[in-house]
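User: Before I run my own analysis I want an independent prediction to cross-check against. Here's the chain; please return only the structure tokens and, at the end, one sentence I can use as a sanity check.
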Amino acid sequence: MKSSHYSFKPLNIGRIVIWSLFALALAIAPLLFQSSLALTMLSQIGYLIIICLSYNILLGQGGMLSFGHAVYTGLGSFIAIHAMNMAGQPIPLVLIPLVGGVAGLGFAVLLGFVTTKKSGTTFAMITLGIGELVASMALMFPEFFGGEGGITTNRVYGKPFLGMTFGSQMEVYYLIAVYCFACTVAMFAFTGTPLGRILNAVRDNPERVEFIGYNTQRVRYFAFIIAGFFAGIGGGLATINFEIVTGADSLNVVRSGGYLLFTFLGGATFFFGPIIGAVLLVIASVLLSELTKAWLLYLGLVFLFMVMYAPGGIASLIMMNLRLAKFGRLKPLIASYLGLAGTGLVAILGAAAMVEMIYHLQLNAALGPTMTFMGIQLNATALNSWFGSAFVMLTGLGLFEVVRRHYIHQWGEIQEAVEKDIKRAEAL
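Assistant: Structure tokens:
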């Protein structure tokens, strides 16, 4: 029977605004931060957003803990760099990321069929084994992987594209930004597809999915292939950015662990969480590593505390507070947040001073016992420096605990008030 009227879905204005702001941020970022370091960091953030989001297809959406995601990123990079160095009719540079994507997809088709046969811990172990296997092959086949020196290329080749030769970092950034936006939109659209929905169901209750007639292995396999495709695109963009690919750096389990760590820190249960994780990854690997030799220790401690107190990542903390803001209950917590930040910072500074003195004695003993920390001269061999640092740390911890207990009590009261507001609204 023919319908006598048409119904139209209303536009999601909020979603349009968010995506517009995201595109605007990508467009104006290099205009606000114009230094060479800033452009390099922005370029890295761009392709790492794609890689972390592709990893989140496995972890966040499918519940698949992978220790070998760098395999598909790295192999995509190697295929991309060989395509750039290809003699005769070279592939246009703007299509090189798609070459990496197709390579990542192809290897995911090949390796994913075996990998996704199992789930849970077995899946994680298989990905770890495959990751180590591929990484070891980098030295076995130097013709393809370039040995320890890797493979280099030159991104300035062929005819200019829209007047751009991609010789400058600014032009490379905008190429990465276009791919970043397109891939982010595509992966967000994937979350709303039937495959994306059933993938969430496989994550939450695979037995029930099997009961209603779906093959959970096939669902995981298809998701694995899609994740491999976008990982390969990220690898191709990384190749264009750095113009060099090495097996030791691109394929090892440390790289895969980095994707896992920062995707988790950003928040694997929310779509925008890996975007936060990509930003944190660049800040940690570029800025924090330059400030201190103990940056991996600090990173490990942050990960430990996040697992213990905020397993949903930074994105979950943001969403919890947005919920309170929606009901007008966030303002009373601002003072507590400032108190937690201030006291926590004091405790961190005291602990960091002791860590830096230990690292100074171990790594820089030839320079003498004196060192500078946050503009303060410390003597790594003097007891007063150690007692002073310990006093600052313990004082900060004590004050933090006082503020934390007050915050927990306040948080509970506000949550009860929010629940009452919800019930009152439902009763109307």
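Sanity check: The first strand starts at residue 151 and ends at 152.
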